[in-house]
Model the fold of this input.
Amino acid sequence: MERLIREAKRPVRVLNLFGYTGLASLVAARAGAEVTHVDASKKAIGWARENQEMAGLSDKPIRWICEDAMKFAEREERRGSRYDIVLFDPPAYGRGPKGEVWQLFEDLPRLTALCRAILTPQPLTVVLTAYSIRASFFAIHALMRDAFAGMGGRVESGELIIREQSAGRALSTSLFSRWVAQ
Done:
């Protein structure tokens, strides 16, 4: 992501949905992007702000928003707000700050479509990660492939793993899929 932001040679807007403690938001801001970080947890946003300070990035443009990710994305679409990069890391199940219910398998297709709808005319990438779910990476890949059909670019998907050093066994930690413009 840092390389994409730096090589764009233009202002880049990043939306980080389900941003949790803000690592991706901080990486994007450090690379020069204007970042909007959304998470339903006030506590997580507090941690993210502390991380921004500890990282020495307090001067970087990050908007911290405590809100339901789906509601925020819907409002951004209505407003005509657009982003060059969208990151989303939804839980399998969760609740928004006003009791909104998120269920990955029911809500992910709609959110993915919203992520496409709020892209700029020259988007850079959309990255989806999914933890603790019972699905193959191909299901996530097919969703992203279909959602970004007709936009050019490519979809890459797989599993993120941790490899045990002593025996070399692999432990799957999450699934990922990303659409990249080039």
